Amino acid sequence: MHLFLIRWPRALLCALLLAVSTVLLSVSLLPPALLKRLLPWPAVQRPCDRLLMQLAGAWVALNKHWMDACNPDLRWRLEGLEGLSPQGWYLLTCNHLSSVDIFVLQHALHGRIPFLKFFLKRELIWMPVIGMAWWALDFPFMRRGKTREDQRRDLEDARASCEKFLRVPTSVMNFVEGTRATPEKREAERSPYRHLLKPKVGGLSVALATMGEQFEALLDVTLIYPAGTPSFWDLLCGNLPAVVLRVRRHEIPPALLGMEAAGERARLVRQARWLEQVWAEKDAWIDAQLQTAAGADQAS
User: Fold this and answer.
1) Is the pTM of this model over 0.85?
2) What are the CB-based long-range contacts (under 8 Å, 24+) for 117-121?
3) pLDDT at residue 267 above 90?
4) What CATH number is attached to the domain comprising 138?
């Protein structure tokens, strides 16, 4: 009860700080975002892009501070961060477990790779405040429609967004499972994995088609919460005891690149098979880590 009385006001304070900083960020992003659209010249766009990334980076740095303040006992286990560069271009994949994932990824990778940009459902552009920030930062919005026309427009929009990433170092992030993995969802889709949903190659394929040769590597990130999947309120209240995050660097095979219509179906098949191999290895690693953690708990 005593801990609750301490953590509850702290959680509300951190939530308020996040809300205020997000509003301020979104407002500050608008002038450079509008300027580079009104004056679409490289001499204007490049400095505007750099300023936008600096503002977004400052927001992430502030989030790191309140996350550390709320979770002073949080144990981080980070692997595979050597050799990364904030001046590089990376394509990231990651398993998806919780609303906390983005904040954990930004915390662990801030200053090591460029600011993360990820594919979003188009409806999210209308979210108050944060939708404006995503638009200003050129996040790719996807309709995810089932008709051929929607899919064609999705591809065109995503390619237009990805082409803007060529101007400044960028990390393009994709939760290839499409949604948060739960036992119920794994059972419903008959996933062949013990801890993951089936990966979907759509957003990954668009990024590879648009700027595949620009990417230095694909960074496959694996997230594990050894004490159980946290909620965002757990993060705010300091109930996140441990995070395991591993980054594996994969060179992107040339056979997966290209954007010509000819051979597109065969290329998608190759991309899907390659991603499934990455996912199978990830699932086996997660299983081994959880078994080790369970054994250590029993021994203690």
Assistant:
1) yes
2) 117/165, 117/170, 117/171, 117/172, 117/173, 118/172, 118/173, 118/174, 118/175, 119/158, 119/173, 119/174, 119/203, 119/206
3) no
4) 3.40.1130
